[in-house]
From TrEMBL:
Protein known as: Thioredoxin domain-containing protein
Similarity field: Belongs to the SCO1/2 family.
Gene Ontology biological-process annotations: mitochondrial respiratory chain complex IV assembly
Disulfide links within the chain: C58-C62
InterPro entries: SCO1/SenC, Thioredoxin-like_sf
Coiled coil: none
Gene3D superfamilies to which the protein is assigned, alphabetical: Glutaredoxin (3.40.30.10)
Domain of life assignment: Eukaryota
List of residues binding Cu cation: C58, C62, H150
GO molecular-function term, one example from the UniProt record: metal ion binding
GO cellular component: mitochondrion
One Pfam family linked to the record: SCO1-SenC
Length: 212
């Protein structure tokens, strides 16, 4: 089967920017890493960004996804391509996830993962650019006691910072690692779903685009 035949590139349909070739997802950011160093998306040019948005106080979803990220990284090690990507964890909880908190959390998973945080406005901005759904729900009377419901996706960007693909929960770590391998080796260049499932599956995971 030719996977590209009749392929459905979902981001081509969801127009937010103007002009051809401009991805709907992604964009510049300037944040702080887990060592307190200012990092921008430009720092990662030349490598594929492999990103996840979550929060360190997440009781179950994020630990599960971080375990997957760690396992994917070790599969990429075995494929000898892990140096072609930079794994990134961006917090959606800037109030609680400062650099130190991120450092402690990420050292439990994989020290190669770049943790990023920022001011609430900076995080809001990057979440909008990557269309990350997140919604806070308080647990009790203490305002610091809350959970955040959020989208569960890995994002893949190319070495120029253009969005190329996302990987949801339905994909196994082996499938994700194989896709990443294909992207970094040039066998795949952008997201196209051979069965048009992608456009449907991501639309209810992401907040609606604002037509502005
Ligand atoms: Cu989470």
């Amino acid at each position: 089967m030719n996977a590209m035949a009749g392929a459905h590139c979902w981001y081509a349909e969801t127009r937010i920017g103007q002009g051809y070739g401009k991805a709907d997802i992604g964009g510049p950011f300037v944040l702080l890493d887990q060592n307190g160093k200012t990092r921008s998306d430009m720092d990662f040019r030349g490598k594929h960004m492999f990103m996840y948005f979550g929060f360190t106080y997440c009781p179950d979803i994020c630990p599960n996804e971080m375990m997957r990220m760690k396992q994917i990284l070790s599969l990429l090690d075995k494929m000898h391509v892990s140096d072609k990507i930079v794994p990134i964890f961006i917090t959606i909880d800037p109030e609680r996830d400062g650099p130190l908190q991120l450092k402690e959390y990420l050292s439990d998973w994989d020290s190669r993962i770049v943790g990023l945080t920022g001011t609430p406005d900076q995080i809001k901005d990057v979440c909008q650019k990557y269309r990350v759904y997140h919604s806070k729900s308080t647990l009790g009377n203490n305002p610091g006691d809350y959970l955040i419901d959020h989208s569960i996706l890995f994002y893949m960007l190319d070495p120029q910072g253009n969005f190329v693909d996302y990987f949801g929960k339905s994909l196994s770590i082996e499938e994700i690692a194989m896709k990443i391998f294909k992207y970094v080796s040039g066998a795949l260049t952008r997201v196209c779903s051979p069965n048009s499932v992608a456009s449907k599956s991501i639309d209810h995971l992401l907040p609606p685009l604002k037509e502005e």
